[in-house]
Amino acid sequence: MTTTGLRIDAARLLARLDTLAAIGMTAEGACCRLALSDEDRAGRDQVVQWMRELGLAVQVDGIGNIFGRRAGSEELAPVMTGSHIDTVRTGGRYDGNYGVLAGLEVLHTLNEAGLRTRRPLVVAVFTDEEGARFHPDMLGSLVYAGGLPLAQAYATRSIDGKLLRDELERIGYLGDAPIPLYAPHAFVELHIEQGPVLDIEGVTIGAVHDLQGISWQQIDIQGQSNHAGTTPMRLRHDAGYCAAAVGCFLRRLASEMGGSQVATMGAVTLHPNLINVIAARARLMVDLRNTEEPLLVQAEQRLAQFLEQLAADEGVTIETRSLARFEPVRFDAGVAALIARTALGLGFTQRPMTSGAGHDAQMMARLCPAAMIFVPSVKGISHNPAEHTAPEHLAAGADVLLHTLLELAA
Ligand code: HGY
Ligand code: MN
Ligand code: MN
Question: Does residue 128 have its Cβ closer than 6 Å to ligand 1?
């Protein structure tokens, strides 16, 4: 039987996306399943149930990564796909979830067609891809790829003070499968673009050939609390002012450097955070990214110089701690070309792309040939309940995944 005419069942994929989106949904309609939370457990349980219904062999490893395996006609290294189902606090329904559920839809389609691929196919759900609760991001796939020792991952403390290992055990996903469970033959991740390029250009598929570097830092500023009314401006050691100054510097840095440089101060907490008290302390979380490693290093150095000068000028002490640092990743040109060819063969427009976001595929690229498939995000919005991708684009991406995996598993 030829597979040329094979297509996924879009309605079934959309229905699973709706079911998963409802788990951990907030009153504002956001997906909130922070890694290793009760909501994450509920999402995991739902995906495992779907895996079992599809007759997959389900295994969980020591960092809670979940694998659903569909046997091939030969016991060879598997072709893997997958993504994550943990979300940020104000997540959309497609980020991560779409790649996992499209993977399940591909296997469901093969089951219905009675097709057996030569290589086994595996759908992976990686733990804590977002890194929002437990730093760094892509934590589960980083451990899987040998980039972070399991013991160190276990000792990671969340932003709400919990130990990773305790939370993994608490939700029942401290598995015993070895790490790495498979040395894959290849890995392909399907994901929404989360940026505006495909949407603006009216292109359906992105064949992702590289991914930019990421630098996350925690910056602690120690000033001196004092009375907001009685303290002359020249005598202040105001951590609140310093926090604002860092935010303004980051915007200047990105615009001066131009190119792909981006800079974000996504989290700021002041202490004691009261209207009439000059802030004693500020904790900032800063995200720098660039496609070129030397430029990312330059951005980090310029931030460090700014902080040194700010500390001297304002009479505060400033400490920084790296939370995540990943160099830019070049994906496998052969797999990216296969994705482009497959998209064109299915009659879709496509274009080569760089990923602005981090993804599990960047860690899997350390183990095997890997690349990504993007579909458009309407207005480039993501990490926001307004995140949206047109149903026909969701179906197109899943069909490209289906035929890319079939070619790799042949
Ligand atoms: O931070 C990222 O790029 C991804 O959303 N974890
Ligand atoms: Mn994601
Ligand atoms: Mn994300």
Answer: no
Cα–ligand 1 centroid distance for 261 (angstroms): 16
Q: Residue 37: pLDDT above 80? A: yes
- Does residue 389 share a domain with residue 344? yes
Domain boundaries, position 395: 10-212+329-409
| CA dihedral over 32, 34, 39, 41, signed as positive or negative | positive
Ligand 1, atom 4, residue with closest C-alpha: 358
Q: What is the pTM of this model?
A: 0.94
Domain endpoint, select from 326, 351, 383: 326
Residue list, CB under 5 A from ion ligand 2: 95-96
Please give the tally of structural domains in the chain: 2
Which residues, 6 or more positions from 232, have their beta carbon under 8 angstroms from its beta carbon?
none
CA-nearest residue for atom 6, ligand 1, is 130
For residue 117, tell me if it sits in a domain: yes
Query: What SS3 class is residue 246?
Result: helix
Pocket probe mutation, ligand 1, options 89, 287, 290, 359, max atoms within 8 Å of Cβ:
359
The SS3 call for residue 75 is coil
Could you report the per-residue pLDDT of 258-301, keeping only the tens digit for each?
999 999 999 999 999 999 999 999 999 999 999 999 999 999 99
Q: Whose Cα sits closest to atom 5 in ligand 1?
A: 130
Helix (H) or strand (E) holding 208: strand 205-211
Q: Is the CB of 358 under 6 A from ligand 1?
A: yes
